Backbone:
């Protein structure tokens, strides 16, 4: 069965950084485009970064130049380095496939204070 487990969130001040991790199992990880999503209170879940099996990354404009998505296919791990965090980045962050979305994990809470 598909399992996606996010970790690494926390409470940081504006301008701080966090490194989020996602452990995947039950999927053909190395052949899938993977992404990081986030959902803030009262807002829809949003795809903020994606990375293809070949390592090509794309970002929404709001996080471009601040976030870096990466993957380790041998370990079936997905990462999101978040730098220069802003209060508007506050959300629960989830990992999942992009073209194919599996069950959602619990996510990891990122809270950025001003």
Residues:
């Amino acid at each position: 069965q598909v399992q996606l487990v996010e970790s690494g969130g926390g409470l940081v001040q504006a301008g701080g950084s966090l490194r989020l991790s996602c452990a995947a199992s039950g999927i053909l990880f190395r052949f899938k485009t993977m992404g990081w999503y986030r959902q803030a209170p009262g807002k829809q879940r949003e795809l903020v970064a994606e990375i293809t099996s070949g390592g090509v990354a794309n970002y929404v404009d709001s996080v471009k130049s601040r976030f870096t998505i990466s993957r380790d296919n041998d370990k079936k791990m997905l990462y999101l380095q978040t730098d220069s965090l802003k209060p508007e980045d506050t959300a629960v962050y989830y990992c999942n496939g992009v073209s194919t979305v599996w069950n959602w994990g619990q996510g990891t809470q990122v809270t950025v204070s001003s």
